[in-house]
Design goal:
Strand content: under 5%
Number of domains: 1
Number of helices: 3
Radius of gyration: 13 Å
Structural class: mainly alpha
Length: 71
Amino acid sequence: MGKRSGSPQSQEDIEKLPLRELNYWIRLAEFRIAHQNLSSSLHKAALTRLVWLEEERRRVHGIAAPNRKRH
């Protein structure tokens, strides 16, 4: 079985991360959306993940998430 990436998958994972590392995962998700040629379903999944990560950052660290409109 392959090794899982170190990306956070649950609230418990998020709570263990320092803010700097959580910001890294958010920037990576933003990059993926902006610079990779994704199919519409992968784009939607990436945007959903980005919104989730930003909401978790708000919950854990109190940093307001930008208002991202979903289609």
